[in-house]
DNA sequence: GAGTTTGAAACT
DNA sequence: CAGTTTCAAACTC
């Protein structure tokens, strides 16, 4: 007898570490794996439900989540791309998705020969007996934990969608006859759902057969601990909902397909069915389900995934890596660079996927929509801006620090008149520091003269000490800043050792603060820009038909577009119009490089004649 | 709607 | 692990 789920005050928490799965390591492992697959939890790793909604009769596995909560998690306003079977029962316009239609009484069939022939160990004891003829209760749709999991990876219209005639459609109505809906053959069972409104016969995948269902679940999990895991993994778990909302189903089939005859272009293929390209996980033959395949692209009526370029082949990653090495010596810049790096290297829009066609088919990475706005050169400019801010802050603060030193020195002189002992003590402290400063400077000069220490303003392809990486302009700028500050400090004759150290610490703090503040402001404005861009694109997309995409995505200019983008990702000219990856350039033609600086309320340092070190 | 094809799941 | 069988969805007519 399994213990009930742990309850948290005021809510129900499904705690996978609880005793619910004690002794069921495979289930617990699966649950943990599911949680892990979700990535960093947007909510704590337990799903909270209002306590009032708890139904004690709900099954333990998959955990059932109340429909109201479920409905909140799955907005219903999204369109459903593929055609769907309409429910047999018409829904009234006022009916909510969780208000399930009244169910018919299903006849209970006697076991067929096939069922008798089945190995008994795969049929639960409860199933060996003829299930009593039960009328299926009129229950709200029992959304399950797995549903919620899936909802984060699939469009919310996966289960339901609202058509124009306000008829709710459901896509997965099984029609199982022999499996009693307790095998993974059954889509409902596989997805952790009860069969409600299905056309199945002799169904045991419901509340009334919960014991049998649990047994079947255990059997399935025993056979494959990942049996109930989503078959399509998302590489961008953190934003999968937004991706789904955009219609961009991303990822790859975790297990892969083994299709032989359908070229993976039919729904027999699980990858195709899941709207993902075949991946290295597949063992299919004659596969045409890869992003550059014209046949695949042409099947846009049924294809809703948008495969993406291999960033390695496009050079995107390489550029980013080089650029962000520029910031690796500075934590704040590093943070900024990393954030933008994620934005740049991990995403490709659906239009990119349609346009960039000459890449390895099995490498899949994804890009957020902001990738259309942010380009490498933008990041370079941002880094330069942050460097400028850092440098200006350093100079200003150093200057103020020196003034402070002068004041302190004057005060010390006054103090020295009062106390010769203190003066002597100060002199004792000052002298070694001065010696150290001059020693450091002279030793540096010696090292530079001997060629063992490179000049701070080195060639861009100089090898950085230790890691042998070429220095990017940003790194050099940072190093210049550090060197400048050090040399300025060491050159300052009036600086006392203690105040120099304090000043340096303060300067670094202030520099970091200013850099982060500027970066925060930049991100805020970028977010605004992104929202505006999204709005513009949504408006533009209504005017820009899919045919336009096909025209620009399937003709011979695609490779040129891809090549051009590799060389100059900012702007592509085609037929007098500006296109980028098949999409009308809104971001860069209207925002562009200078636009980012406008957003920041500053002029680009590159356009301002500023020395970039 | 019946029959066929297909590939995943189940089984050996 | 590979081959075979079972199954239900997808597809065709």
UniProtKB/TrEMBL annotation:
UniProt key word Nucleus: yes
InterPro entries: CRC, Lin-54_fam, Tesmin/TSO1-like_CXC
All copies of domain CRC, residue ranges: 170-292
Localisation per UniProt entry: Nucleus
GO cellular component: nucleus
Coiled coil location: none
Top-level taxon of origin: Eukaryota
UniProt-listed GO biological process terms: regulation of DNA-templated transcription
Keyword tags: Nucleus
Disordered, as annotated region: 114-138
Family from the record: Belongs to the lin-54 family.
Name of the protein in its database record: CRC domain-containing protein
The species this protein was found in: Oryza nivara
